[in-house]
């Protein structure tokens, strides 16, 4: 069969890498893809929001399964469109993808169906928002309502920071239309984990646990990014926490979405805050996390294609997933200045040397080709991902790969996975 993956980042490189290993698959296409993806699949020059172009390609090439990576095409209704034409597609329909496309919707859903989350209010005007900040106190969390590529969350430590964030978002400066409504919520203490599950709208199959590192600098300092690294498994997700996340977060959310007439099919990502035995939901995403997808797929022993097909066919009742006992760690190498402005076009050195390390793979996220050389072309450039018998060995192997790769101003966190070692 032929498979089309939509997207161009590290998550999509990981999906293509895993799908290409399936004996069921003869050819993988990726739209628009990136040069790293182009070494294992055929890149197709169609943008992720060109739904009609993607549909035409899928029909022309007789694509048996389309896998949607990023949130934008999901929120635009690509799944609805493909299904209308009888095509098999993995991802959430438009009316279900709103769980990520609108923070206000997801918070209201959680409130209605008793999914544990932080106390919050939604605002469209600056003055009432500032009054709420003054009542609640700092630190406080301010979120753009719409899609902001993982960067629409500001944890304000001072009143001035909070007021500036709200004013900036609601005046349309920070995130454009995505910030025309803001969700302001209490700051939760604890340790974050990423909890992902496949669902057909009824049945839920959890993936292995994972933990993302959102802040740009070591020690979880600096502004939030799309993610600076991830590891799996996450020891903070104990068997008791896992059970709580399944029953109180995933089960209630999937059942709630069905009750709302928005059956959720695809992969559902819950960002959790864990404090002792308490589990609260920070956010939902309607797709694989990036970079969590990279270590998760390196640990997945099962062929992923039958799983994706079962979701697309709306019945995962017979699906089982096997995992490697090994741990996996992904260290993101980013461009200087990210998540702010950053340069492009710097030549990347050392990729061939890193590729020689066993149980290590370098996923491309923001790269381009200049003649025959890989150059930087995004904020998050590479996801250096390694397996190891323990988290410690996976960390060491990933950083061994990182040490061999360089470009002008390359930046990465040096403490990815440290929380796991502390446990």
Structural topology:
Blueprint: E1 2-7, H1 10-19, E2 27-32, E3 42-43, H2 51-60, E4 65-68, H3 71-76, H4 78-84, E5 89-90, H5 94-101, H6 103-112, E6 120-123, H7 126-136, E7 140-144, E8 153-156, H8 159-170, E9 182-186, E10 191-199, E11 204-206, E12 211-212, E13 215-217, E14 221-224, E15 229-232, H9 239-259, E16 266-275, E17 278-285, H10 293-299, H11 304-312, E18 327-334, H12 351-355, E19 360-364, E20 367-370, E21 373-376, E22 380-388, H13 391-404, H14 418-422
Parallel strand pairs: 1-2, 1-4, 2-3, 4-5
Antiparallel strand pairs: 6-9, 7-8, 7-9, 10-11, 10-16, 12-15, 13-14, 15-18, 16-17, 18-22, 19-22, 20-21
Helix pairs in contact: 1-10, 5-6, 7-8
Pathway: Purine metabolism; IMP biosynthesis via de novo pathway; N(1)-(5-phospho-D-ribosyl)glycinamide from 5-phospho-alpha-D-ribose 1-diphosphate: step 2/2
Keywords: ATP-binding, Ligase, Manganese, Metal-binding, Nucleotide-binding, Purine biosynthesis
Domain ATP-grasp: 107-313
What is the terminal separation in angstroms?
44 Å
Low-pLDDT windows of residues: none
Q: Label the overall shape.
A: globular
Top CATH class of the largest domain: Alpha Beta
Care to give the gist of this entry?
By secondary structure, this protein is α+β, with helices and mostly antiparallel strands.
């Amino acid at each position: 069969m032929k498979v089309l993956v939509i997207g161009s980042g590290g998550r999509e490189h990981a999906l293509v890498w895993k799908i290409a290993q399936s004996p069921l698959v003869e050819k993988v296409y990726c739209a628009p893809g990136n040069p790293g993806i182009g070494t294992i699949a055929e890149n197709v020059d169609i943008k992720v929001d060109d739904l009609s172009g993607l549909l035409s390609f899928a029909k022309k090439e007789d694509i048996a399964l389309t896998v949607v990576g990023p949130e934008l095409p999901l929120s635009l209704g690509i799944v609805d469109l493909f299904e209308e034409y009888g095509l098999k597609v993995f991802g959430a329909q438009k009316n279900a993808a709103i769980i990520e496309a609108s923070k206000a919707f997801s918070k209201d859903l959680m409130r209605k169906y008793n999914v544990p989350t932080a106390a919050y209010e939604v605002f469209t005007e600056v003055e009432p928002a500032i009054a709420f900040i003054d009542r609640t106190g700092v630190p406080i969390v301010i979120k753009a309502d719409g899609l902001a590529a993982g960067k629409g969350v500001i944890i304000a430590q001072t009143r001035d920071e909070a007021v500036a964030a709200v004013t900036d978002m609601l005046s349309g400066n920070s995130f454009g239309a995505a910030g025309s409504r803001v969700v302001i919520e209490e700051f939760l203490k604890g340790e974050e984990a990423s909890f992902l599950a496949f669902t057909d709208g009824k049945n839920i199959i959890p993936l292995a646990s994972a933990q993302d590192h959102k802040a740009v600098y070591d020690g979880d300092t600096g502004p939030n990014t799309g993610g600076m690294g991830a590891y799996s498994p996450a020891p903070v997700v104990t068997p008791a926490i896992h059970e709580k996340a399944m029953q109180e977060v995933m089960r209630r959310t999937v059942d709630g979405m069905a009750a709302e007439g928005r059956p959720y099919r695809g992969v559902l990502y819950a960002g959790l805050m864990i404090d002792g035995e308490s589990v609260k939901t920070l956010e939902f995403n309607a797709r694989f996390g990036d970079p969590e997808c990279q270590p998760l797929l390196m640990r997945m022993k099962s062929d992923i294609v039958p799983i994706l097909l079962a979701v697309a066919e709306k019945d995962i009742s017979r699906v089982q997933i096997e995992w490697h006992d090994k741990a996996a760690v992904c260290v993101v190498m980013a461009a200087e200045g990210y998540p702010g402005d950053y340069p492009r076009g710097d030549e990347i050195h050392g990729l061939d040397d890193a590729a020689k390390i066993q149980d290590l793979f370098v996923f491309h996220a923001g790269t381009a080709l200049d003649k025959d050389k890989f150059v930087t072309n995004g904020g998050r450039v590479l996801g250096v991902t390694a397996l190891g018998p323990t988290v410690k060995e996976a960390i060491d192997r990933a950083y061994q790969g990182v040490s061999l790769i360089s470009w002008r101003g390359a930046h990465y966190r040096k403490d990815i996975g440290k929380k796991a070692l502390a446990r």
